[in-house]
Design a protein that fits this description.
By secondary structure, the chain is mainly α. It has a single domain (32-154, 164-449), classed as Amino acid/polyamine transporter I, CATH 1.20.1740.10. It has 16 helices and no strands. It has helices spanning 21-29, 40-51, 54-66, 68-92, 104-112, 114-154, 167-181, 191-215, 230-247, 254-258, 270-299, 307-310, 315-351, 358-378, 382-410, 417-448. The longest helix is centred in the N-terminal third of the chain and has 41 residues, at 114-154. The radius of gyration is 22 Å and the shape is globular.
């Protein structure tokens, strides 16, 4: 249900707010609804931060698993489809006059009913947001580890440079930042972190493809599939689909981002929000396509699942790029964590009747950060995690759930352009959801055979 008005569809902004003083106080405390003074450019860099993350670094690797033809097709089609579904969500945010669907599950409840909407949306959204935060824990730790390795390699005679620090410790170092930042109260309070993260994403993406061009096409480059069996090629292809789906996964927080923008009947929030989305998607294209296509062109099927790992020179540039990644995933972690904090705090305060205090927030958010850190340390399968989560959870919430909601709410005429377009997106998204996790799960199983916990 929306938090700004009663469920009466005839409610408008001129009527009296019927919420009690307690309900107003709670809404003013919860992360999503506590601040509504964001500008359109907040939407731009929040969406860039949410979209461009660990996924962009794996796109050349995904291309090596998909091949030139299928890879380019899936990349471009995904960009078009997700921009369309994002437009749908922006439009549906205030489809009922005087009411705002501030959270993904509230829109789901309007489309499918109070109980069914919760069961359809909340599990998927939690899997996506918690899954992303776990993967970003691993990404941040790996990037810090890469910086350490490069610095030590450059200073081999430095006896103070320890080379055998475990990945687990780097993940803990990365997590320590979030034990502080996670206590920022709402989306607007992390706008500075998000802006820095958005700038970093464009910066390290440019470094990734620029350094690839500088390195040039490798002498032994091979664009064929690297698996030696048909089954291996098929599984790798499916994993590549999941990695692309993971890269286009900003929809899970779009309604929450739009909720921070002020809205009036004369100037609804969808106008500035859409302006920010368009800018964000231009930045996404500038990050994704050059990194994916140039990275694969230069390294072929020998490219690493993190393009920066394949680039080791010039050392100072790759160190800087990895630090940019760290800054970016710090912001991305917070963007995806904020709706989870909102869900947890809503349940505790509205359902379990806890008082909305700073120490309730302090305890719950620290527990969440500790949980994602623990899981990231326990299962640091970077490539496999991207493929599995990308297909299993990201495809529904990004590629086709908005289309299903659109059909359920607006009921376009059968065989009309809107009806056909939505069904094409639904079919494409369902195929991704069914096929992609298979490859990702196999990748995790293969890596797990030789993995020792906390080694």
């Amino acid at each position: 249900m929306g938090t700004q008005a009663p469920s009466d569809p005839n409610y408008n902004n001129d009527k009296v707010d019927t919420r009690t003083a307690e309900e107003k106080a709670i809404d003013a405390w919860l992360p999503i609804t506590s601040s509504r003074n964001a500008k359109w450019w907040y939407s731009a860099f929040h969406n860039v931060t949410a979209m461009v993350g660990a996924g962009v670094l794996s796109l050349p690797y995904a291309m090596s698993e998909l091949g030139w033809g299928p890879g380019v097709t899936v990349m471009v089609v995904s960009w078009i489809v997700t921009l369309y579904t994002l437009w749908q969500m922006v439009e549906m945010h205030e489809m009922v006059p005087g009411k705002r669907f501030d959270r993904y599950h509230e829109l789901g409840q309007h489309a499918f009913g109070e109980k069914l909407g919760l069961w359809i949306v909340v599990p998927q959204q939690l899997i996506v947001e918690v899954g992303v935060d776990i993967v970003y824990m691993v990404t941040g730790g790996r990037s810090l580890m890469k910086v350490h390795e490069l610095v030590c390699k450059k200073n081999e005679d430095n006896i103070h440079c320890t080379k055998d620090i475990k990945l687990s410790y780097f993940i803990m170092i990365f997590a320590s930042v979030h034990f502080v930042l996670s206590h920022l109260p709402n989306f607007n309070s992390i706008s500075g972190v998000s802006l820095a993260a958005a700038v970093m994403s464009l910066s390290y993406s440019t470094i990734a493809w620029g350094a690839s061009v500088k390195k040039g096409v490798q002498s032994d480059v091979d664009y064929g599939y690297k698996a030696h069996s048909t089954s291996g090629t098929v599984f790798n292809f499916l994993s590549g689909l999941g990695e692309v789906a993971f890269a286009y996964a900003g929809h899970n927080v779009v309604l929450e981002i739009q909720a921070t923008i002020p809205s009036t009947p004369e100037k609804p929030s969808k106008i500035p929000m859409w302006r920010g989305v368009v800018v964000a998607y231009i930045v996404v294209a500038l990050c994704y396509f050059p990194v994916a296509f140039i990275g694969y062109w230069m390294f072929g099927n020998s490219v690493s699942d993190n393009i920066l790992v394949s680039l080791e020179k010039p050392t100072w540039l790759i160190v800087m790029a990895n630090m940019f990644v760290v800054v970016h995933v710090i912001g991305s972690y917070q963007i995806y964590a904020m709706p989870v904090f909102d869900m947890i705090e809503t349940v505790l305060v509205k359902k379990l009747r806890f008082r909305p205090t700073w120490y309730l927030r302090f305890v719950t958010r620290n527990i969440y950060v500790a949980f994602t850190m623990f899981v990231g340390i326990t299962f640091p399968f970077f490539g496999g995690l991207l493929g599995f989560f990308g297909g299993f959870a990201f495809a529904p919430t990004t590629y086709f759930l908005p289309c299903i909601m659109w059909l359920a709410i607006y009921k376009p005429r059968r065989w009309s352009l809107s009806w056909i377009t939505n069904w094409i997106c639904i079919i494409f998204g369902v195929l991704l959801m069914v096929l992609a996790p298979i490859g990702g799960l196999r990748s995790i199983i293969v890596q797990a055979k030789t993995y020792k916990f906390y080694n």
